[in-house]
Amino acid sequence: MKYELPQLPYAYDALEPYIDAKTMEIHHTKHHQTYVNKLNEALAQVPEIADKPLEALLRTIDEVPESIRMAVRNHGGGHLNHSFFWTIMGPGSGAAPDEKSKIMEAIVAAFGGFPKFQTEFAKAAASVFGSGWAWLVLDEHGKLAVVTTPNLDSPLMHQQKPILGLDVWEHAYYLKYQNKRPDYIDAWWSVVDWKAVGAHFEKP
Ligand code: MN
């Protein structure tokens, strides 16, 4: 078993009332675990690439043998996206990045202000058709951009570095918010850990 389900850095109920404990537990122990299991099953079929880092496999997804390419794209993307997602949330978070932080300066420079960024990000997240993710990334030119990916696709597949990500699959919100995805998006801002986001941004 190569990949393992990472532990959450907080309890399942730590993001209440914005994200409920039951959703967090199922999302982590069922959905994420399944991506880990299926990624391991796929890589076991092609041992010669199993030692390559997952990030590198996704960046060069077209070079992954066709027999497991879709499995690596979906379950590898699923494992990486969720591992990332857990780290950019936390209890006692929310509001906005520190005024003097590098991430805040970069967001203001790129979007014309923090509220404008939030509006653009929320609009992108709400507009994802079916299942997918909204992201703040550093794009292939090193610029901050809001993008979306379908299903479990990773921004790494497009040579983009994730800075902030939001899972808008129904499994991420349906128990509490049912079909009201915009309400989930609104609530989610209250659990974004901007220190963690800033660390992703500043990490080379
Ligand atoms: Mn998910």
Provide a compact summary of the structure.
This protein is 48% helix and 10% strand. The chain has helices at residues 21-45, 54-59, 66-87, 102-111, 114-127, 174-177, 181-188, 194-202; strands spanning 132-138, 144-150, 161-167. A three-stranded antiparallel beta sheet has the order 2-1-3, sandwiched between helices.
Q: How are the SSEs placed, and which strands pair?
A:
Layout: H1 21-45, H2 54-59, H3 66-87, H4 102-111, H5 114-127, E1 132-138, E2 144-150, E3 161-167, H6 174-177, H7 181-188, H8 194-202
Residues 27, 31, 82, 167, 169, 171-172 line the site of manganese (II) ion.
Largest sheet, strands/sense/barrel: 3 strands, antiparallel
Q: What percentage of the residues does DSSP assign to strands (E)?
A: 5-15%
Structural class: mainly alpha
Task: Give the overall pLDDT as a whole number.
Answer: 96
List bound small molecules: manganese (II) ion
**Cα-to-Cα separation, first versus last residue:** 29 Å
| Parts with pLDDT < 50 across at least 5 consecutive residues | none
Strand order of the largest sheet: 2-1-3
Give the overall form: globular
Task: Say how many strands there are.
Answer: 3
User: What is the assembly state of the chains in this entry?
Assistant: single chain
Helix residue percentage:
40-55%
Radius of gyration: 17 Å
* Count of helix runs: 8
Order of helices and strands: HHHHHEEEHHH
Overview of this protein structure:
The chain has 204 residues and is mainly α. 48% of the residues lie in helices and 10% in strands. The chain is built from eight helices and three strands. It has helices at residues 21-45, 54-59, 66-87, 102-111, 114-127, 174-177, 181-188, 194-202; strands at 132-138, 144-150, 161-167. Strands 2-1-3 form a three-stranded antiparallel sheet, sandwiched between helices. A hairpin with a 5-residue loop joins strand 1 and strand 2 (144-150). The chain is globular and about 50 Å long.
